[in-house]
Specification:
The chain is of the alpha/beta class. The protein has one domain (2-189, 227-255, 269-276): Rossmann fold (3-Layer(aba) Sandwich). The protein has helices at 30-38, 67-82, 114-128, 140-143, 145-160, 168-172, 190-199, 218-222, 238-247, 257-266, and strands spanning 2-5, 14-19, 42-49, 86-92, 132-135, 182-186, 230-233, 269-276. An eight-stranded mixed sheet has the order 1-4-3-2-5-6-8-7, with helices on both faces. The two termini are 15 Å apart.
């Protein structure tokens, strides 16, 4: 594991975002990250891999020893626009998409024991002491095996961090128990995804072969039933989020500017599903830190 501190992280409110790859943070809830970072929240990004799978244009690799090195540099660029307090790499190998040869790499996140991954995330939760944890949804957004594995490991770590019976060696090393208040998953509103699937052909894009590598099926994503419990307004932070996304130049070759403009027009808020505590009443939550009064303690 490698942790890179980027700015002063001793803030009373702390958010831990746990995703699988460099770019998941920028092509996902970037607006939410910028919003909270601009409000003084210490936002820590736990990145399971360095995005080694896949191909990029040869000219982009000039001056870099590997794709992993390039994508790490891209993430550090994005982190500046997002206002991240720190990056934490678990350093598993990118497993690639479903049924890709990289799935079988013994160093891949997909092949890593779940307990091992959860132990690392538990350690970070106990060090950082976030009140809120955010990770991928159970379907991994678009069924990426690394997203699904990171979801499973983060959920396990969320519940382990406050238990003296889990990873007790960390406690012997001086870490303290810490139970975060809230756990969220990313959530795609089905209605919006269905609209996107209908509009893409008008822009010359195949909704069943979307993305740089044409391996994302938007219509399949639209069939996943996700309960949107929380909406975070991001319009004032859209420009900063787009600057972060542009840092990931190696991953943006498959989407036209028209698609980006369309998403900017459609997306006025980031949407999430609150898993802990369960969302049991009507309406929509507008703040990830809503209901959290005790923000004592300090992070790493």
């Amino acid at each position: 594991m490698e942790s890179i501190v980027l700015r002063e992280a001793d803030a009373p409110r702390r958010l831990l975002v746990a995703f699988a790859h460099p770019d998941d943070e920028s092509f996902g809830p970037a607006g939410t990250i910028v919003r909270y970072a601009s409000q003084g929240v210490a936002v820590h990004y736990v990145c399971a891999t360095r995005g080694e799978a896949g191909d990029v244009a040869p000219e982009l690799l000039e001056g870099y020893d590997s794709l992993a090195e390039l994508r790490t540099k891209e993430l550090r660029c994005a982190a500046g626009h997002l206002g991240l307090a720190a990056l934490h790499f678990l350093d598993y190998h990118d497993s690639g998409m479903e049924n890709a040869p990289e799935n079988l790499n013994p160093a891949s996140l997909m092949q890593a024991p779940l307990e091992e991954v959860a132990e690392q995330i538990t350690r970070l939760i106990r060090q950082i002491q976030p009140q809120v944890v955010l990770t991928h949804d159970p379907a991994g957004g678009y069924f990426h095996p690394d997203h699904i594995k990171m979801h499973q490991a983060t959920v396990l770590a969320f519940h382990s961090a406050g238990s003296p019976d889990r990873f007790a060696d960390q406690l012997e090393q001086g870490l303290a128990l810490h139970q975060p208040h809230k756990l969220y998953y990313t959530a795609f509103p089905r209605g919006l995804v269905k609209i996107f699937a209908r509009v893409l052909p008008l822009l010359g894009q195949d909704p069943e072969a979307f993305g740089r590598n044409h391996d994302i099926n938007i219509r399949r994503i639209a069939e996943v039933d996700q309960a949107v419990t929380t909406k975070i307004g991001i319009r004032p932070y859209f420009e900063a989020s787009q600057l972060a996304a542009r840092c990931h130049a190696s991953q943006t070759g498959g989407s036209s500017n028209r698609v980006v403009d369309l998403m900017g027009w459609l997306v006025r808020s980031d949407t999430f599903s609150r898993a802990v505590p369960p969302f049991e009443h009507g309406g929509v939550e507008r703040d990830l830190f809503a209901g959290i009064d005790d923000v004592s303690g300090s992070g790493m």
